[in-house]
Amino acid sequence: MKEAESEVEFAAAILIGSENYGRTCINGLPLTPSSIRLLGRFQKLLSLNHKNICQYIELIRSQNSANAVFVVSEHYSKVLSWKELENTLIIPIITQLIDCLRYLHSQDIIIGHLSTDNILITPSKKFGLTVKLCQYGLNYITGNGEDVNYLIADAYYLSPERIIKMIPGVWKGPASKKSDVWALGIILVEFFIKMSLKNLWSLQQYTSILHTFCQKSQKKTCSFFNYLMQAIKIAKPTLSVDIDEKIISIIEKCLQLLPSVRPRLDDIYNEIEIVNNNHYFDQEEEEFSNHMKEVNAILNLQNLEGVKVYRPLTELFFLWKLCGSNIEAILKPGEQKFARVIIDDYKLCGKNLETFVKTPFNLIILPSSNLKTRLKKLECEDTHNLNSDQVETPSKFVEYIGQTLIVKERNIEYQSYRMALMRDLLLTYPYTLEMLKTECKKDIPPVYRGALWAALLDVHDDVNIDFDQLDTFPEQASDRQLMVDIPRCHQYEELMTSPAAHIQLKKLLKAWLLANPNYVYWQGLDSLAAPFLVHHFNNLPKAFGCLQNFIQRYLQNFFLKDNSHIIQEYLAVFTQLLAFIDSKLYFHLNEMDFCAELFAIPWFLTCFAHVLPLHKLFHLWDTLLLTDSSFTLFIGIAILVQMRQQLLNSQFNDAILLFSDLPDLSIDKIVADSLCYYHSVPPSCSHRIYSSEHLRDNATPLMNISLNELRTFHCPRISPTDLINLIDHNRVLLLDIRSTTEFNMFSLPNSINIAQNCYDFNSSSFYSIIKSQLSVARDHKKDIIMSLMNRRSKKIPNLRKMSVSRTISVANNELDYSQLEVNSCPNSPAVKKVFRLVIVGSARTGKTAIVNRFLEEQFEERYLPTIENFHRKVYKRGGEVYQMDIVDCSGMDPFPAARKLSYATGDMFIIVSSVDHPESLNHMLDLHDQIIECKLGKGLPIQNIPMIYVLNKTDLPRVKWQHNEAEFANKIIQFTGSQNKHILCSAKLNENMDVLFVNLFQQARLPKFMCPGAHRALRTKHSADEYEESSSSRGHLLRRMREKFSRESEDECYTQLNARRSSLRTDLLLTRAKSMERRNKTNGNKIGHKISIKYTNRNEEQYVVEAVTGVESHSKKCVIM
C-alpha cells in the first residue's frame, strides 16, 4: 500500500456524467446512471501502483446531483515549475514521465488528458526530483468520454485524428494510445522552449497552424515538429532553443501526422533511457546538490504545507473524513441549479444539468488544516510490542472497547491507533495470526477489513495459481441464471449496481463453480459473494479464495444439487435452539404453524447476506469469522429475539409481512446477543452432521441420528461431556421422573426423584412441588434445569403451565397440553382467483413452443434451452381479476428442489412428449409419478388432478416418428384409465392447440373466458415490455396498468412474459395453505416429542443424556428441562 513520502495533500475533480432520463435498456428497464458506471470503472484505478503517479483514493457520488461525482486523489503543493528546470534536469524528468506513461498503457489506461498542467515535480532530500502525474484516469472512468457531454482534454495537446473525429455540437473525440504519444511530443517541446503554447497563441491561432500543416503535408512520414518550431520562432524571434539531436529525433517521431507511424511508449522509453544515462554521468553531483538546496529554499518561502505523516494514503483520507470534512460542501457547483419540470410520461422540460452547472475538471485542493491539527495531537511515537503473545491496549483507549461500533468507527484517535496496530500485524502475518484474532475480537477497522477477512479465512497468495487455472470464458449451464440474478444483487449498494461489478461478479461465481464441480448454483450465491468482491474488487483471486474458504467453513454442502437434507437438518437444529432459548416465542410460532422454512432458508443459505444491507453485514461477519459454523444459528435466534414482541403480537399473515420486510435491526445488539448464546449454550446443542469442526474448547460431538428422528425432537440434545461439565460447576438441577426403584439403582449426582407413578403431572400438587424445587435451585444459583426419563416413560411433566419463564421439557413422547388448533391462511378473493399451470416434459419436446402459442400466438424456429421460465396472464372480467401463472420447467432438470416445489404448487399440468423423441413417452409417465409423489409428500390431494398428456411435433415427416398415435393413446389410456386426457398437436402449425387448453381448463373448472377462444374477445394488452419502450419508468408503467384495471366497465387481459418468479417463501406458503386446507377436514394429531435419554449399558441401567438445553436471554442463564 502506498505511503506518503513528503508533504501530501488531497485534491478532487468534479465530473458531471451525461443524463439518461427517459432512456431504457433493451429489456425496458432504465439505463444505469452514468455516475454508477464511473464508480465501477474507478475501481481499476485503485489497483494502479507506480512511483510517478498520484494515487487515486476514492470516488464519491454527489447526494444532490444525480450524475455528479467527486474524484479524490493525492496531490502535492510544494512543486517545482517545469519552466524553471535547467536543461540538465529535463531529461531525467522526461524519463520518469515516459516510464509512468508506458506503465499506464500496459494497464490499458489511455490518459487522453495529458498536459504540462498535470505534471507535478516534487523535490525531496531522499529521492531528488520526482515526477507525479495527476488527472490520468478521468478519460478512463468516463469510458473514453462516452459518459460525459464535454471534452476532458486540453485542446493544445489534441492530436489531429481526435480533432477530426469530433462531432459538431458535442465537441468530444475518443482518445487512443497514439494520441497520448502526440501529447507527449507537445509536452517535450514546451519543456525545452520553457514556455506553454497557450502563452504564444490563442486556441484559434494554434488550430489554424495545425490545420495548415495537415493541408500542406503530402508525405506519410511528415512530422509536425519542424513546422511547429518555425512557427514558434516567428512568434518569438528572441527565443533561444537548445535541444539534443537525439531528443529532436524522439519528438519528431511523437509528432508524426499519421497515428500508425508514431512509436510505442516502450520504444520511446528505450531511446530516452540511453540519453538519460549519458547525461547522468556528465552531471556533477555537487552541482545537483546545490541546485536542490536552492529549490527547497524557494518552496519553503511559499509556505505551502501538506500533511507529512508516514502512513498509507487510504488511512489519511479516512482520518480526513473523520475530522468532519464534507467534500460536497467544499466542492459544490458554482452556479444555482434550476428546477426541472416533469409532465405526463416523465417528459423533462428545462436545461440539462451539465449545461448550466460549471463542471471544471481541474483539481481543487481539499483543506487539510483540521486533519493536521488532529494528527499533531496523536502520539505517533507509540509502538506496539509484537514479540509478546498479546498487545496491550493503551489505557486511554480501554474505555472505547466496550463502546458501540458506530462510536468506535467515528473516533479519530481510536481509529488511528487501531489502523496502525492492524497494519503492523498484517505485515508480520501469518506469524501473528493468534494476536490478529485477539485484536479482531475487539473490532476491525474499515480500511483493513478486506485484508483482515482474508487472514482470518486463511487465504494466501498461492490462491492466484488456482484461480489462473480456471477458464471462466466458455459458457456454462448457470450463465442464463447468472444473467438474471447478478443485476438484482444488492441493488442498494452503489458499486454493485455498476456494469463493471456485474462483470467481476460473474467471473467470480463462474470460477467458484468450476473449482467445485460437485456444487451447483443456487440463488443467493451471488449475494454471498458480493461482500468479498466489494473488498477485493481488483483482486479476484483473493475474493475467490475468501469465498471458497468461507463456504467450506460455514456452508459445507449447502450448494449440493440436492441440498434438502442439509437445509432440513439446519432448520431442525435452529428450531430446537429457539425452543431452548425462548420457549414462549417458540410455542407461539408453533401454534401458528409458522415454521422456519417460511423465512430462515435465505438467512442461512447466504449467512444473512440476502437480507441485511452490506454495511450491517460487514459488522456481523467481523464476528462470524472468529467463530464456527454454529454461530449463524445464534444470529438467527438473536434476530428473532429482537423482533420478539412484534412476533408475539402477530398472527400468521402479520408474521409473513414482518419477515418480508425486516424492520431496522440493531446490529450491535444482534452481535452481542449472538455471542451470549454462542458462549452460554453447551456446544453439543448445536451439533449437526454436516457442520465444520467446532472452534470452542471441549466441544464433543453427539451420535448422529437420522433426519426423521431429529425432527421429532422439540428441544436440542446435549452430550455427556457437556452435562458432566454442568454438574461439576453446580449449574444444573436434575429432575429424575423415573420410578423410585430405578432411581435407587442408579442416579446422577444431586438429582431429585419425582417419580411419574407417584404424581399426576396435570395436578396442582405436582407443580407446587416443582415450583419449590425451582426456588431452591434459584437460591443456589443453579441456572440449568433438566428432567431425566427413560424410553418407557409415557407421561412427562408439562412445565409450560408453570410461571417459570421460557422453559421447555427435555424429552416428550406426548405433550399433555391441548390439541393445537390448525388454521390455514384466510381465504381471500385474490387467492381463489390465482391458478398455476406447470408444463413439464423431456428436453426438446416443444414445451416452450406450446406456451408461446398460448400467450403470444407465435412460434419461434430457433431453439433455446430452458432453465425455467415464468409467465403471467391476468384477466379482468366483470370487475374481478383472475391470474394465471405459467411455469415452463426445464427438460434437463438442473434444479430438482425447485422442480419439486413447482409440482407442489401446481394446480394443473401439461406433460409433453414428442414424436421424434424415443424416450420422452416413458419419461412422461415417470413425471406423472413424480408429481403424485410430491403432492403426497406435502399432504396435498391427488384425486382428479387436472392433467393432460401431449404428443407434440406431429408436423414432422412420418419417417422421423419414433411412435405412432395408437401406441401413444393406448399407453396413456392404460396408465391413467381415462379416454380424454391425451392429445396430439403441433405447436408449429397451431394444430389442436385450442383443444389442448380447453380440455385442461375444463378439467380444472376454470372460467370459460380464460380459454384461448374466449379470451381473444377481451381487449388485450400484450406485456409490460411494450409499455416500457414508451414509458420512462417502471413505476409509471405499473400505475398505468392499475388505472386500466380499475375501469370496471371494461373486460380485458394482459400477458407479462418472463415475469418475476414468486419467491421460495411465497411458494412454500402456497403449498402450506393447500396442505392445511386438507388437514382442516381431518382430525388433528397431538404433537409428540422423542425422548432424549439413551441406554449405554442395559445391565447397569446407566443413562447417557442427549437432552434439551436452553438460555434465558435477559439473565443470560441456561434453562434445561
Automatic annotation (TrEMBL):
InterPro entries: Kinase-like_dom_sf (IPR011009), P-loop_NTPase (IPR027417), Prot_kinase_dom (IPR000719), Rab-GAP-TBC_dom (IPR000195), Rab-GAP_TBC_sf (IPR035969), Rhodanese-like_dom (IPR001763), Rhodanese-like_dom_sf (IPR036873), Small_GTP-bd (IPR005225). It is found in: Cell membrane. Belongs to the small GTPase superfamily. RasD family. Keywords: Cell membrane, GTP-binding, Lipoprotein, Membrane, Methylation, Nucleotide-binding. PROSITE patterns: PROTEIN_KINASE_DOM (PS50011), RAB (PS51419), RAS (PS51421), RHODANESE_3 (PS50206), TBC_RABGAP (PS50086). One of its GO terms (cellular component) is plasma membrane. PANTHER family: MIP08469P. This is TBC domain-containing protein kinase-like protein. It is a lipid-anchor. Residues 728-754 form the Rhodanese domain. Pfam families: Pkinase, RabGAP-TBC, Ras, Rhodanese. Residues 443-628 form the Rab-GAP TBC domain. One of its GO terms (biological process) is signal transduction. It comes from Parastrongyloides trichosuri (Possum-specific nematode worm). GO terms for molecular function: ATP binding; G-protein beta-subunit binding; GTP binding; GTPase activity; protein kinase activity. The keyword Phosphoprotein does not apply. Its main location: membrane. Residues 1-281 form the Protein kinase domain. Signal peptide: none annotated. Coiled coil: none annotated. The keyword Nucleotide-binding applies.
